[in-house]
Amino acid sequence: MKGYIVRFSRRQRIEHFSVMTVFIILSLTGLPQKFFEASWAQALIVGLGGIDRVRWIHRAAGVAFALLTGIHLTTAVGLVLLGRSSLSIVPTRQDFTDAIDQIRYYLGGSEEPARFDKFDYKQKFEYWGLVLGAVIVISTGLVLLFPILTAQFLPGEVIPAAKLAHGNEGLMAFLVVIVWHIYNAHLNPDVFPFDTTIFTGKISLDRLHHEHGREYERLKDEQSPSDPASI
Fold first, then answer.
1. Is there a contact between 190 and 36 (Cβ–Cβ < 8 Å)?
2. Measured distance CA(16)–CA(69) in Å, rounded
């Protein structure tokens, strides 16, 4: 009997590592520009080589993030159209039911937690929040990167509005990752101190059964009749 299954492909692991790296660079170079009056921001800007270098690095990382987002979405849609991937990350009515059941469990109104499929409602919320946030920061970032060109087609007020939206969305994404993602991926008692699944691609059958019960049962139903003990 296998002790684990491969949950994330090599392509997905590379995508995650790339986005994580670019996100860290964008945070390190973007937040000091938003809070430039703070002493920690000024020290960080000096440490990174000055404001001109910080802006250049931030713009280069922003272009990389835009390319990664475009490649990811194009690949995801293409795989679905070719029938090589499912719509398992798309929210369904079951996710709302699962969220209510899970809250009832947390409040002591139920003895059993909700049982999830491949992605639970929290993972779907985080994924689509990232996609929506990416659309906002990329579109507003392009406006800030090409303000003169933008002003030829759109009212000038769009540029300061884009600056405000870009900075606030970047700050919100940073806080969501620090508070929501870090807790679920590292500080959650079920995975503490570190969830290695997205880096190795593997998840143990015990964790799969505990965290994604419906996926576990579905994979078990799909197993080979000649090998009933494996998934």
1. no
2. 11
Q: How far apart are CA 120 and CA 95, in angstroms?
A: 7
Beta strands in 2-156 (DSSP E): 4-6
DSSP string covering 150-209, please?
A: HHHHS-TTHHHHHHHHHHHHHHHHHHHIIIIIHIIIIISTTTTT---HHHH-EEEHHHHH
The pLDDT of residue 221: 84
Six token digits for residue 30: 């973007």
- Predicted model pTM: 0.86
User: pLDDT tens for residues 154-188?
Assistant: 999 999 999 999 999 999 999 998 888 888 877 87
Sorted by sequence, the CB contacts under 8 Å of residue 168 that are 6+ apart come out as: none
Q: Would you say the C-alpha torsion 83, 88, 93, 97 has a positive or negative sign?
A: positive
